[in-house]
C-alpha cells in the first residue's frame, strides 16, 4: 500500500521539522516551532460559503478560538455585528474541535487545521469552534483540558448558537491525535457537571500506557512515528514524575475511571491501521464498550496518521461520510 | 521508509500545459496546507526529504540541537529550498559528508547577531499578571441593553457607509445623528463603543465637511503629529517591531561594507537609529562609516528639526566611536524627493528604509505618471543593497467606499483592542489620537488628500516584483528576536508570524503590520532576445 506523494511530503516534512523542535532535555524550541508553522488568518469574507473569525474566550489565559460558520447565502462579508448572528436552522450542530499536534505542536490558526475545520462545516452543516488550547511542555496537564472545559462552557452559554428546535446548543466534541484525547477528557468533565454532549468524534486519538503493546513494537518508526517521540510528548504533557498509566493518557488503565452507568456521549473513534498506537486506541474503544457506552469504531487498515489532512484518499472520504452521519443522526 | 505513490499524480493538481510564460503549477493540496511546491517538483522534494532524514539520523544529537538553535532558516513555505538549506547545514557540520557530492552550493550562513546589543528606546518592564487581572476587572459586565446598542451601532455604521457610497447624504446625515444618540448608551471607554465613536466622527467629517476643506497633506506634518507619533511609539509595539526588524535586515545587508548609507523616508524623531548605530559599533571588525539621510517635512515653526535630530544622533555616534554623517532632506511629500538630493556615493552600500511611507505614493493622478512607479524606479537605481519596507497589513485602498470602510472597521477594532490590553501607558489617549487620524484619512478623505492607502503584503509583493525588486527573506533569527521583544510587553495577545519570507506582527492572530526586505533585480540588456530556460525568445 502506498501513500499519495503530496501527503507523504507533508507528513515527512512535519516529522523532520518536529525532530528539530524536541530537545533531549524535554524542552521545546517554541520560537522555531512558531516560525515553521504555516498559519492563516481568520477570514470574515466567505470562501466557498464559509467564513471565520477569532474570539477571545478567556482573557486571563488569552484563550482564543476560531469560529467557522456558513453564510446564509450572502456572498459578501458579514459586518462585525453579524458575526455572532443567531443560527437560523431548527437544528445546528456545534462542533468544538481540538486540533492535534501531540499536545505540543500546531494552533487553531495552523493552515492544516483551518482547512480541516472548514471541511467539517461544509460536511456537517455545523458551526465549528476550534480551540487554541495551551500546549506542552510550557503548559502541562491539565491546562489543555481546562481550556477545553472553558471553551465548552462558553459554547454552551452562547444564545446565538442555540438551535431553534429546543433553544439549546447542540454540542459535539471532536479532535485528532491529542485533540481526540482532550475531547474525551472534556466529555468526562461535562457529564460530571450536567452539560449535554451529543457525541464525541475521535480521529486517531492519542492514548498510551506504561506497557509496550504489540502494535507499538511492530510499527515503531515504520510510518512517520516512533515510540521515542511518543514518549517525549507524554513526558512533556504529563505531570513531572508521572508514568504513562496516568489517567490522562490511559483512561481505562489501572488508574482509570469506571464509566459504567455514566451518561457519557456516544463516540465515533477512527483508528488508522498503520498507527503504532492503535492498540491503545482499540483498548479505549473496548473500555467504552465494557462500560456499556455507545461507540462506533472505524478501523482503516491501510491508513497512516494524518490521512484526514488532505482529501486525496478513500479513507478521507469514508471518514467524512461517517462523521456527517454521526452528527446528523441526532436530529 | 514509507513508500509513496511514485507516479506522483494521486491527489495532486493537474499538470499545466507547457508554456514559457506560465508559472509552474503549484500542488493545490499542499498550498492549502501553506506550502508552495510545484507539482512537477514533488518527487524531487520527496527524495530530498528522504536524504534529509538520512542526514539527520547520521547526525549526533548535539549537531541537531545546534542546527535547531543556530541555523538561520528562511521561508518555510518554499519547501524545496528549505529542505535543501537544512541539508547544507547538516553537511557543513559533518566532518565526512555521508551524502553524495551533487548537493548545491552551501547556503551562506548569516552570523547570529549578538543579541545583547542594547536598545536605545526605553522598554518599560510590565507586570504581566497584575495588568491582565486589572484588565479583567475593568471589563464591565455588558448588560443586555448595552450589547444590543453596540450591535445596533455597528449595523447603523454599515448602513451609513452604504448610503455614503450611494451618494444618499441626507440619509447618511440622519444616521449620524441617530448613532451619536446611541453612543450615549454605550460604553465609549473601551471596546466597540470607542471604535464606533471614531468611525462616526470620520463619517460625519466626510458628510458634513465642504469639499476640499479636508486637507491631508498640510495637516499631517505638524509638531502635534510628531507628538502623537511618539506616544503611539511608546504605547504599543508596532513601530518598535518595525524598527527592530528593519534594523536587523539592514545590519545583515551591511556586513562586509565599510561605507554605508541609510536613507530614511520619514525621520520623525529618528527613534529607529540609535539601535542601529550601537549595533554597528559592536560589529565584529569594527563599525563602518555611516551616513544617514533623513527625509522629513519642512518645519512649520522655523526650527530645523531634521538638523536637530541629526545632531543628537551624531552625538550618540561619537560616543560609541562610529564615524557618522547626517543630511536632512526637507520635502513636503515623498514624491518631491529627487535622487540627486540624497547624494549617494557609488562606493556606498545603500539601504532605503520606509516605515509606513510607500502607501502614501499610491494616490493616482491621471495626468501624471504614478508617483509610486517614479519613486520605486529611482530607488532601484540608487546602488541599492536593501530596501526595508513596513506597511499596515490591510486593504484600505479598495475603490469601493463600503469595502474600504468595512475593512477599516475590522482592522482598527483589532488595533484598538490591542492597545487596550497593553499596560497602562500614561498618555495612551494620545496614541489613540494618532490612530484616529489614520481612520479619518481612510474614511473621510479622497483623491490626493487620502494618503493612508494601505495595501496588504500580497499586493505589495506583486507591485514590488513587477517594479524590478526581489525579496530578501527575513529569517528565523529575526523571528525569534522579534518574538522575544514582544514578551517585554504585557499582553500575550501579540503574535509574530512568518509569511513567505516576511514577518508580520498581529493581535490575536490577525496580522496588523508586515515587514519585508527587498533588493533590486539588475537590468538585463537583451542582445538578440530574452534568454530563458527553454532557449531564446526573440
Automatic annotation (TrEMBL), chain A:
PROSITE patterns: LIPASE_GDXG_HIS, LIPASE_GDXG_SER
Main location: nucleus
A single GO cellular-component term on record: cytoplasm
Active site: 177
BP term (GO), one: raffinose family oligosaccharide biosynthetic process
One Pfam family from the record: Abhydrolase_3
Subcellular location: Nucleus
InterPro entries: AB_hydrolase_3, AB_hydrolase_fold, Carboxylest/Gibb_receptor, Lipase_GDXG_HIS_AS, Lipase_GDXG_put_SER_AS
Gene Ontology molecular function, alphabetical: gibberellin binding; hydrolase activity
Family affiliation: Belongs to the 'GDXG' lipolytic enzyme family.
Protein name: Alpha/beta hydrolase fold-3 domain-containing protein
Lineage of the organism: Eukaryota, Viridiplantae, Streptophyta, Embryophyta, Tracheophyta
TrEMBL record, chain B:
Occurrences of domain Transcriptional factor DELLA N-terminal (ranges): 27-94
InterPro entries (alphabetical): DELLA_N_sf, TF_DELLA_N, TF_GRAS
Disordered: annotated segments: 1-24
Entry keyword NADP: no
Keyword line: Gibberellin signaling pathway, Nucleus, Transcription, Transcription regulation, Ubl conjugation
Cell location: Nucleus
Location of region: SAW: 444-519
Pfam families given in the database record: DELLA, GRAS
Residues covered by region (Leucine repeat II (LRII)): 308-340
Main function: Transcriptional regulator that acts as a repressor of the gibberellin (GA) signaling pathway. Probably acts by participating in large multiprotein complexes that repress transcription of GA-inducible genes.
The protein, known as: DELLA protein
The species this protein was found in: Hevea brasiliensis
